[in-house]
Amino acid sequence: GAGVSQTPSNKVTEKGKYVELRCDPISGHTALYWYRQSLGQGPEFLIYFQGTGAADDSGLPNDRFFAVRPEGSVSTLKIQRTERGDSAVYLCASSPLAGRNTGELFFGEGSRLTVL
Amino acid sequence: DQQVKQNSPSLSVQEGRISILNCDYTNSMFDYFLWYKKYPAEGPTFLISISSIKDKNEDGRFTVFLNKSAKHLSLHIVPSQPGDSAVYFCAASADGNKLVFGAGTILRVKS
């Protein structure tokens, strides 16, 4: 497809388990973003990649969260020792522009994570 | 510390009338503002944006107004259509990359 693809669309896990969420951005987009949206809230910034490197990871809530983008395309968000408070929709977005952009991001449909 | 606030959780408007969605911000370093629209089970989609050097930007039925002194922006939709029913998020950026979003306003356009 032509848009941002996220898998899985839904993930239910137990407290303490490890989770990986995958994002396949629009082909050719150099910038990739992860956001988290909790119920009744707007998306909250987690991390931003420019190519393979994390340009800004200031939004990651703690060291249980980690993200990689080894080849500058697909990205994986990894959450260790999941907690119930991690339950949210995790949104991935990409942007075609390098460096400072106009802020227009192309979002995927999100991965809904539920931690029981 | 909410830097971007959308104080109206919901808004209901009659088809054909004007919809006005409001947004306030606190960070004076924000220099780019955007509105996103979100349908259920879909990701947000970009609607319209405005740079801090402007006070108005128009795109078809959608107009965004920026009042920097009041740290306030608004989105006007004229005329409103039933297909406009969605959640609207206001977002702001200070560095051109990290967007700070408001909590959203649910717009319902009644036919």
Structure description:
The complex is a heterodimer of chains A (116) and B (111). In chain A, 0% of the residues lie in helices and 47% in strands. Chain A has no helices and 11 strands. In chain A, β4 (31-37) and β5 (44-50) form a beta hairpin. The mean pLDDT of chain A is 93. Chain B is globular, with a radius of gyration of 13 Å. With 111 residues, chain B is mostly beta strands. The model of chain B has no long low-confidence stretch (mean pLDDT 95). Chain B has strands spanning 4-5, 10-14, 19-25, 32-38, 45-51, 56-59, 62-67, 72-77, 86-93, 99-101, 105-110. The A-B interface holds A 4, 31, 33, 35, 40-45, 48, 55-56, 58-59, 91, 93, 99-110 and B 4, 6, 32, 34, 36, 41-46, 49, 89, 91, 93, 95-104.
Considering the chains and any ligands shown, give keywords for the structure.
heterodimer, A: 116 residues, mainly beta, four-stranded antiparallel sheet, 11 strands, 47% strand, B: 111 residues, six-stranded mixed sheet, five-stranded antiparallel sheet, 0% helix
Number of helices of chain B: 0
Mean pLDDT metric of chain A: 93
List the secondary-structure elements of chain B in sequence, H or E: EEEEEEEEEEE
Radius of gyration of chain A (Å): 13 Å
The percent of residues in helical segments of chain A reads: under 10%
Q: What quaternary form is this? A: heterodimer
Low-confidence stretches of chain B: none
Give the helix tally of chain A.
0
Helical content of chain B (DSSP H or I, runs of 4+): under 10%
Which pair of chains has the greatest number of interface residues, and how are they split between the two chains? A-B, 29 and 25 residues
For the biggest sheet of chain A, the summary is:
7 strands, mixed
Strand pairing plus helix content of chain A: what structural class? mainly beta
Largest sheet of chain B: 6 strands, mixed
Distance between the termini of chain A: 32 Å
Q: What form of chain B results from the Cα inertia axes?
A: globular
> Based on DSSP secondary structure assignment, what is the total number of beta strands of chain B?
11
